[in-house]
């Protein structure tokens, strides 16, 4: 990292480099990045280092952490290895979280971009549509969708995406409304650039900073959604996830705190990491707001 | 003014109709026979019931006729029958609505009162202890899954310090008059409301702090100070009233999310509201009840939005004049 600071010549700095400079100096943002790095490392490298099947019964049920050297974090109510569950459970949660955030951004940016750029009737229709999705209680709607259709990971991600996009759409719309009146957009229009060219190549790149921040926070929200759905037992039952571990262990809560506490702590630390990074990005993109 | 209210009510009605159409589409799009979806897979779906449902909803007729029939039934207050509970869905839902509204209102009230106070306290000194507390609290409130926070409180108050009951709404063994009953419900309400409220307390305190800091920099605050208004008055009246506006707006917009949170919290604490009903009927594949709950909770959100709009206008008369 020290090498980077030495090579950064002021004249060559782009806005992203500058943002990274601010981001790097924020202890909380770096803590968030570190948390995320640990979670991702654990999820991807964990299975190779600790190759225990999370569904396999390995020891006596409800063995507390630290009692057996072979099972460092104890077992759940069926005698399954908690540590193996924590390692395996991350991949489903992270995959659904990222996929849902991607779907959210795709729908939200698309709707918001057209509404904000064209205004008028297009804006009215699209915004009415958005407002309709905003009155649906998100988790409840996702619960219904997942139940009526099959609770596969793809459907879970789709359901979360469908309930989360309105906020992104509103943000994109307001950014597009602001930017479309700026001079460089008029200049592009004057030299004969088409609408889609202006929307995707001119306005969108300039609207990116707040959208990146929003995408980060969306990932955190989607992870919480996935956890909630699988806690209720409405996610894919054949895939281990942190929420599922909490859901199946909650009846033994008072006898075995670790069964519920540990996977919950993983969710908490992951979302904390995501939101610290989001806050850090926000500050990095809006240096003037940092004083608040 | 009246024109505006009429317009808003019409808009609300159109949203309600849209939710019903959505429910209808969900029934149609779900894999399998719509009659089965309406009857619920685990209900007493014998041939007779199925035939009755087909006739009632005109399932052999064109799609638009079906939609018309569905809307007709719904607008007459008939959202179908739960074959799992053997009761009309509307009746079933109305019997569970009270506990959910009580939980949501208590949690929201707690979050608004404590959150705004905390945010104000923090805004007095942007680098002080209260500010740090608000930052930490809002991070925890945002990042911790609400059902997990609830379960952690269960461990704390169920095993370590048994101060509050951890499940249900009423102690059936307890005898006594209405006052005893009310106190008993309040006692049971503490943990669920605290769990749900903490999430929003975190958000509102952070929001209040940010908007107070912004408002305190405004010209009219300087004027107030210059003409000798006490610092206390400047804070509590001049600044707070304006700083409250974004909090009210956000609180109104989040109503759907709060109901979603209530579903999880109710499940954790076996609170006998719409959330536990939703959970149970989803497990039982009792689709009419599930869709009925979706409809009713959307209705609550729509009403809450109308109320928020009204409160914002009270807080800021400028909004009433324009647009």
UniProtKB/TrEMBL annotation, chain B:
Q: Which family does it belong to?
A: Belongs to the binding-protein-dependent transport system permease family.
Database matches in InterPro entries = BPD_transp_1_N (IPR045621), MetI-like (IPR000515), MetI-like_sf (IPR035906)
What keywords is this UniProt entry annotated with? Cell membrane, Membrane, Transmembrane, Transmembrane helix, Transport
Which branch of life, at top level? Bacteria
Record lineage: Bacteria, Pseudomonadati, Pseudomonadota, Alphaproteobacteria, Rhodobacterales
Q: Where does the UniProt annotation locate this protein?
A: Cell membrane
Q: Where are the transmembrane segments?
A: 9-30, 101-120, 132-165, 185-202, 243-269, 289-308
What is the protein name given in its UniProt record?
Answer: ABC transporter permease
Q: How does it sit in the membrane?
A: Multi-pass membrane protein
Domain ABC transmembrane type-1 span(s) in chain numbering: 97-312
Write down a Pfam family by its short name: BPD_transp_1
Q: Which Gene3D superfamilies match?
A: MetI-like
């Amino acid at each position: 990292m020290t090498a980077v600071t030495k090579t950064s010549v002021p004249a060559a700095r782009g806005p992203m480099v500058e943002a990274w400079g601010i981001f790097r100096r924020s202890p909380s943002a770096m803590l968030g990045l570190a948390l995320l790095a640990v979670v991702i490392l654990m999820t991807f490298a964990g299975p190779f280092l600790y190759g225990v099947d999370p569904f396999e019964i390995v020891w006596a049920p409800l063995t507390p952490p630290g009692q057996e050297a072979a099972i460092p974090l104890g077992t759940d109510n069926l005698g399954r290895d908690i540590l193996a569950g924590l390692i395996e459970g991350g991949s489903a949660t992270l995959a659904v979280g990222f996929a849902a955030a991607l779907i959210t951004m795709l729908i939200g940016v698309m709707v918001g971009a057209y509404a904000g750029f064209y205004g008028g009737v297009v804006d009215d229709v699209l915004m009415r549509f958005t407002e309709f999705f905003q009155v649906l209680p998100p988790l409840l709607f996702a619960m219904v969708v997942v139940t009526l259709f099959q609770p596969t990971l793809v459907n879970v991600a789709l359901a979360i995406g469908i309930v989360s996009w309105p906020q992104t759409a509103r943000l994109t719309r307001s950014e597009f409304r602001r930017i479309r009146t700026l001079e460089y957009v008029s200049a592009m229009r004057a030299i004969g650039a088409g609408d889609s060219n202006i929307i995707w190549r001119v306005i969108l790149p300039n609207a990116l900073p707040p959208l990146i921040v929003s995408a980060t926070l969306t990932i955190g929200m989607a992870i919480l959604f996935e956890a909630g759905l699988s806690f209720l037992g409405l996610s894919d039952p054949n895939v281990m996830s942190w929420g599922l571990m909490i859901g199946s262990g909650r009846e033994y809560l008072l006898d075995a705190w670790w069964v519920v506490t540990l996977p919950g702590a993983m969710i908490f630390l992951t979302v904390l990491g995501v939101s610290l990074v989001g806050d850090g990005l926000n500050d990095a993109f809006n240096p003037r707001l940092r004083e608040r | 003014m009246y024109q505006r209210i009429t317009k808003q009510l019409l808009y609300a009605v159109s949203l309600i109709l849209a939710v019903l159409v959505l429910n209808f589409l969900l029934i149609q799009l779900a894999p399998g026979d719509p009659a089965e979806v309406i009857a619920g897979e685990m209900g007493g779906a014998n041939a007779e019931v199925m035939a009755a449902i087909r006739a009632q909803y005109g399932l052999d007729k064109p799609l638009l006729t079906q939609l018309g029939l569905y809307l007709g039934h719904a607008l007459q207050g008939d959202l179908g029958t739960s074959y799992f509970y053997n009761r009309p869905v509307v009746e079933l839902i109305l019997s569970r609505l009270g506990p959910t509204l009580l939980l949501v209102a208590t949690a929201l009230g707690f979050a608004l009162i404590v959150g705004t106070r905390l945010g104000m306290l923090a805004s007095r000194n942007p680098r002080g202890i209260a500010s740090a507390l608000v930052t930490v609290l809002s991070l925890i409130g945002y990042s911790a899954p609400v059902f997990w926070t609830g379960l952690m409180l269960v461990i704390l108050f169920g095993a370590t310090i048994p101060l509050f009951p951890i499940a249900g709404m009423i102690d059936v063994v307890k005898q006594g008059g209405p006052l005893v009953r009310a106190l008993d419900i309040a006692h049971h309400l503490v943990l669920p409301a605290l769990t749900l409220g903490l999430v929003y307390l975190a958000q509102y305190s952070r929001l209040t702090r940010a908007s107070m800091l912004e408002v305190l920099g405004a010209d009219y605050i300087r004027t107030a100070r210059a003409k000798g208004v006490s610092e206390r008055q400047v804070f509590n009246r001049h600044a707070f009233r304006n700083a409250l506006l974004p909090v009210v707006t956000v609180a109104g917009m989040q109503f759907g999310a709060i109901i979603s949170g209530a579903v999880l919290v109710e499940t954790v604490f076996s609170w006998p509201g719409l959330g536990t009903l939703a959970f149970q009927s989803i497990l039982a594949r009792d689709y009419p009840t599930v869709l009925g709950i979706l409809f009713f909770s959307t209705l609550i959100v729509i009403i809450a939005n109308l109320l928020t709009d009204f409160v914002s206008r009270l807080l800021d008369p400028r909004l009433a004049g324009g647009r």
